[in-house]
From TrEMBL:
Residues 88-226 form the Fatty acid hydroxylase domain. Coiled coil: none annotated. Its cofactor is Zn(2+). Its main location: endoplasmic reticulum. This is Fatty acid 2-hydroxylase 1. The lineage of its organism: Eukaryota, Viridiplantae, Streptophyta, Embryophyta, Tracheophyta.
């Protein structure tokens, strides 16, 4: 049921409130609160801990895993050329996954209580609090859970010698994505590619949320016709 009169109390844990917004959730979540303060999600300190991650934890935890998978393919017998090409292939696959997840999952429209609640946890919180530095990267525990089916899928589809390097390249792409995403929100590039990407991503947050789904690249937005209009890109 839709409850248009419900008001979220920002001074209380948020996660189990947002579901009550019903159809009003979509409008509410895209009215950002620009503050570097980290809002509380849960009353439980343990659950709250697992929603907060410093950006540097991502490369610290996952780059050694990337190296292990790439070295596994090298030990099996891939040549340096084959290894490099396979890792780049994994990176390329990640860019499409990055775009697809952002466009089709993170920006799915919801209105039911549990759908709103889950969406807020996955991505809605980031649009509501875009400068929250402890919820800009994906929590490692959640990443680990998601990596298991992805690894099994790659093992099933790819030859045994190539699968670890493909997976390692994809995981490297994820690390680059999370670090880039954090930098686009909190860094201050003055010119060049990073400046253009920051402006591109800030337009997605504050002006035209249904366009510009790429984070590390605009390539797939170009391919699938979701580039923002020229007026937005130049402003």
């Amino acid at each position: 049921m839709v409850n248009q009169a419900f008001t979220v109390d920002l001074n209380k844990p948020l996660v189990f409130q947002v579901g009550h917004l019903g159809e009003a959730y979509e409008e509410w979540v895209h009215q950002p609160i620009v503050s570097k303060e980290t809002p509380r999600f849960f009353a439980s300190d343990i659950m709250e801990f697992f929603t907060r991650t410093a950006w540097w934890a991502i490369p610290l935890i996952w780059l050694p895993v990337v190296c292990w998978f790439v070295c596994t393919s090298a030990k099996i017998g891939l040549s340096p050329y084959e290894l490099a090409a396979t890792v780049v292939g994994g990176l390329f696959i990640w860019t499409l996954l990055e775009y697809s997840l952002h466009r089709f999952l993170f920006h799915i429209k919801t209105k039911g209580y549990w759908a709103n609640t889950l969406h807020y946890l996955i991505h809605g919180c980031h649009h509501k609090h875009p400068m929250d530095g402890l919820r800009l990267v994906f929590p490692p525990a959640a990443t680990l859970i998601l990596l298991v089916p992805f690894w099994n899928l790659i093992k099933y589809l790819a030859p045994a010698s190539y699968a670890p390097a493909i997976f390692g390249g994809g995981l490297l792409g994820y690390v680059m994505y999370d670090c880039t995403h954090y930098y686009l929100h909190h860094g201050k590039p003055l010119k060049g590619v990073s400046h253009d990407l920051k402006r591109y991503h800030m337009n997605h947050h504050f002006r035209i949320q249904n366009k510009g789904f790429g984070i590390t690249s605009t390539f797939w937005d170009w391919v699938f016709g979701t580039l923002p209009p020229q007026s937005y890109k130049k402003s």
